[in-house]
Amino acid sequence: MAIEQDCTESQVIVVGAGPVGLLLAGELRLAGADVVVLDRLAVPTTESRASTLHARTMEILDSRGLLDALGDVPGEEAGHFGGIPFGLGLPGPHPGQWKVPQARLEELLGQWAADLGADVRRGHELTGLSDTGDGVLAEVRGPDGTALAFRAAYAVGCDGENSAVRRLGGFAFPGTDAGRELLRADVTGIDVPARRFERLEGGLVVAARRPDGVTRVMVHEFGARPRGAAPSFEEVADTWKRITGEDIGAGTPLWVNSFDDASRQAARYRRGRLFLAGDAAHQQMPVGGQALNLGLQDAFNLGWKLAAAVTGHGGEELLDSYHEERHAVGRAVQGNIRTQALLLLGGPEVDAVREVFAELTGHEDVRTHLAGMISGLDVRYEVGPGDGPLLGLRLPPVDLVGEEGATTTAELLRQGRGLLLLAPGQEALGARLRAAAGPWADRVRVATAASAPAAEEGRDLPGGAALLVRPDGHVVWSDTGRAGDGTDEAGTGDTALTAALERWFGAEPARTPHRPARRDPVTIAPAAAPVRERSNGMERLAGRTALVTGSSRGMGRAAAIRLAEEGALVAVHYTSDEAAAREVVASVERDGGRAFAVRAELGVPGDVDGLFAVLEQDLLDRTGSTDLHILVNNAGVMGGVSADAITPDQFDRIFAVNAKAPFFLIQRALRNMPDGGRIINISSGLTRFANPDEIAYAMSKGALEQLALHFAKALGPRGITINSVAPGITRNGNPVFDVPEAVEQMAALSTFNRVGEPDDVADVVAFLATDEARWITGSFVDATGGTLLG
Fold first, then answer.
1. CA distance 169 to 164
2. Domains in the chain, CATH or no CATH each
3. At 150, which helix (H) or strand (E)?
4. What predicted TM-score, i.e. pTM, was given to this entire model?
5. Is residue 766 within a helix (H) or strand (E), and if so which, with residue range?
6. Which of 266, 491, 510, 671 is the S-S candidate for 313 at Cβ 3.0 to 4.6 Å?
7. Which residues face 402 on adjacent strands?
8. At 400, which helix (H) or strand (E)?
């Protein structure tokens, strides 16, 4: 009997928790989109069907800070085209091919996505899928056979050659069936000569022994047709013996499979709210390791675009560009793979063609062309007007020297945002371009740097005086610096930059984030228990980081929780009460947010440097970057001592914590804060309301307010706002708030006839931290509940 069942709501459903799906999930979370990943396998597979990463994929992993976690990866520049050896090396830090087992890559990407907040659900098989016009509905068989429902704005199939999303979504998948196949097995307990695409009289054989003693064997018998089913190890051993004369039948197979030369590609990678990526979008022989790399690069192209759509600043044109860009790349890759399959698995009839290819690869321009094609480094997208040498290509990975010291192009992309990269020595141009990019400060980081070898000479960046780079690393606008007056010349200048920003990063201000409309519960049989509804609160500050000082209790605690509700990763600072700080973190995490505790005593020597040493490491571990987007200076100490009784030590302590520490926290934070950041100082209504017992305290808060006034002028060109919030009488845990008569007297001071609650102030802080407050800076915000009205 069917019963009504609630839906689990998300913004994006990704089907398939292989490397492609997990990279996509991580990209979506990095950009602030809510994502659930569904995979039919209860546990990840240990089979490493693919083991080769090419240069472009290594660059992608580097741009997300994931390479170090892989450790020492063996690599080599030697490659092949259809079994014909040639060098894959091209300029860059990752030339050639790198051996990373697919299982290890999947583990790495899975941990990264989970750390960013992706919801990965294994043992969940997709059984139904529909585009409802305002979203998608997925019907799923859960681990215990129960029927579950998931609803989202979009769904992406990353579920392989036999994709359920492709089948259920009605995607056309034209192409050619297999004519040849290569049998493959990982075997222990055998000792055969190493072979690299050795062509013998009866067929092709490959044997490669790994350091752990496992030998991967591959064999194709010339003229043999595909079996149409998975081979047994006995079939692999028999074929191997017929071709080589060697007996490997006594070995122990770890896994056995085959791959063939079938070649198919989805006619469209997008149908409405459904998308395909990886092998779900294209089927090809995995020769030379291109299949996995092609799929990962699909995900890298799609992730930021889909996140832009669901977070409110990406439209249909941006989503359509995924198919336009990646379908063409997939078609080109399939063409070179079909050629390679013929050269590799063809019989004696292709020997003459192989000889010609071998001769051609000896020419450097041919070798460079083939290496760029196989590695993915030659991909150039149509991105708009202009004639810059890098336009449409990926930003080359080079060492840079800039305002914040040495860095790399990969490091500047780690937060998953766009990048406006300016060359030094172009002050007038740089100021105009910074101003033009200001409205996109939440999506585009601005940095000034030059390639390290040229920095001392003040020369341009590679490709011009300014470059606009998408989150996936591709250059979409460049300026040579020749048009010094800001006019457009060959797609350069302020107007062209604005057009590029609008095309790739959305109009300003951002539109309301897309979420599928809520509906009545969906009826699905068989019956199942209701599924917990996911929180949809993480929106306006998704992808950003915040430090709230003094946030283990009171207004600081409320502000930390409120910022986390908006999607920020929050550092909960405390001085001594670790248990209280941990409770704040736990409260955030229970509600689906992210936070961590950091301890430092303020107002003492070395306080700021000590705090940031810990903070930077925590941020790096959690986000791959040390960027701090929001600083809330909340920590403070009260005086409670009359002017005639306060001592010099008490006076110095009040100023050290309330004024000096915030000044140097701001000074230090600006080294980590991208353009468009937010600084919020918690002042006090006592700077406008007399209380003789708090003269020193009021003086310290008055000094704090001066920071907002004067820093605002200095930070305006970077789009960073700084404001002062002045609470009135606010419930803070003091025992006086347990005395009804005292509360009544305090409440009478407010226009609203009540005392303030920490959440009253936290909501003001959250607003000032968002893009909606971008036009407010240097301000005194009265949050006293009308106490100052008199």
1. 8
2. 7-175+264-375 (3.50.50.60), 179-260 (3.30.70.2450), 399-505 (3.40.30.120), 545-789 (3.40.50.720)
3. strand 147-152
4. 0.67
5. helix 758-769
6. 510
7. 405, 449
8. strand 399-402
